Amino acid sequence: MIPENPNPTTADMLRDLVREIAFYGRDLAKMFAAELGEKSRSLGMLGTLAGAAAVLLLFSFGLLTVALVGAIAYGLASWRWALFIVGVGWGILGLLLLLPVAHALRHGLLNFGHTSRRIREDSEYVKRNLAA
Q1: Residues 6+ apart with CB under 8 A from 79
Q2: I need a labelling partner for 37 at 20 to 30 A (CA). Which of 12, 54, 81, 122 fits?
Q3: 14-35 as b/e, with b when 16 or more CB fall inside 10 Å?
């Protein structure tokens, strides 16, 4: 522990502030590394399972799409119309899935009001104290 200086200079105070910030950042990094180490095995297993599930679901989607096109083509006797109908159907479904995303973006999902307010308050505080 460094003994307290009764009359610290500005340079001493800045040096102490930088040292404290560095210690804080180092402690946060150590805590994050420890948590990541604890969870890395289960995260790896979950990632592997999610990847395998995504591959199987993609193949399933493709095979079911081909089967749907085949069924429609059998009824219409035209592969072109069957592909068009299935393509339009998937397109409409995709657009319907995007509606909640568009709604959330339109209503301020990416508007970080709390952070903006905090930055504004902090900058006003610094301006007031530097002006004094």
Answers
A1: 69, 73
A2: 54
A3: eeeeeeeeeeeeeeeeeeeeee
pLDDT tens figures, 53-97: 989 999 999 999 999 999 999 999 888 888 889 989 998 998 888
The answer for residues whose C-beta is within 8 angstroms of residue 90's C-beta and 6 or more apart is: 65
Rounded CA-CA distance 46/13 in Å is 47
Q: Is residue 2 part of a domain?
A: no
* Structural domain count, the chain: 2
Give residue 13's domain range. 8-77
CA distance 65 to 67: 5
Q: Tell which of 60, 77, 94 closes a domain.
A: 77
Among 70, 75, 43, 22, which residue's Cα sits nearest to residue 14?
22
Q: Tokens 């001493």: give the residue.
A: 12
